[in-house]
Amino acid sequence: MELKRAYTKNPEKEVEKALQQIDDNKYYVELERYGAKEVIKLGYVFDGKKVISSYIE
Q1: pLDDT per residue over 7-41, tens digit each?
Q2: Whole-angstrom Cα distance, residue 40 to residue 42?
C-alpha cells in the first residue's frame, strides 16, 4: 500500500505514480518470500477531504 498527498491538480495521475512506486521499490517481495500467494497493490492519494484510490492484483 502506498499513501500520497496530492500536490498537483491531477490526483488520478498521482495514484498511478503511487502504484508505480510499489513496483519500483518492490515492496511486495518480502510478502512473497513469506509465502503470500496473492498480493494486491493499493495506491491512495489524499486531496483535502477527497480520496482517490486504485489497485492492481
Answers
A1: 888 888 999 999 999 999 999 999 999 999 999 99
A2: 6
42 C-beta neighbours (distance < 10 Å), count = 15
Are 15 and 43 contacting, i.e. CB atoms less than 8 angstroms apart?
Answer: yes
Burial of residue 18, with CB atoms counted within 10 A of its CB: 0-12 exposed, 13-18 middle, 19 or more buried: buried
Kindly report the pTM of this predicted structure. Answer: 0.83
- Residue 3 backbone dihedrals phi, psi, to 5 degrees: -110, 135
Neighbours of 43 (CB within 10 A): 22
- The CA distance from 18 to 1, in Å, is 8
